[in-house]
Amino acid sequence: QVQLVESGGGLVQPGGSLRLSCAASGSIFSGYDMGWYRQAPGNERELVAVITSDGSTNYANSVKGRFTISRDNVKNTVTLQMNSLKSEDTAVYYCNVKRRSSWSHRILNDYWGQGTQVTVSS
Prior knowledge:
Elements: E1 3-7, E2 10-12, E3 18-25, E4 33-39, E5 46-51, E6 57-59, E7 67-72, E8 77-82, E9 91-100, E10 107-112, E11 116-120
């Protein structure tokens, strides 16, 4: 079975940094899109960052310039480096992997991790 396990969450002061990691197992992920979502209490789950199979990246406007997503296809990991953290970044962060059709790009498989809590507070 495909499993995604996040780590690296915790408590950090405003302006600080955290690095989230996601270890994927159970498949070969080099051709999949990998990304991070987050959900704060009372809010919708939102895309934070995604990195495609060819290494192209996209970021939510709210994190652009502060967060960096990367992947290692040998280790089957995806990371999210979060800098200049704000209280608004407080949320549960979820690792996500999507398998898409090569032609239509429709989602064929969608996998989620269990989530890791990030709290930005003084």
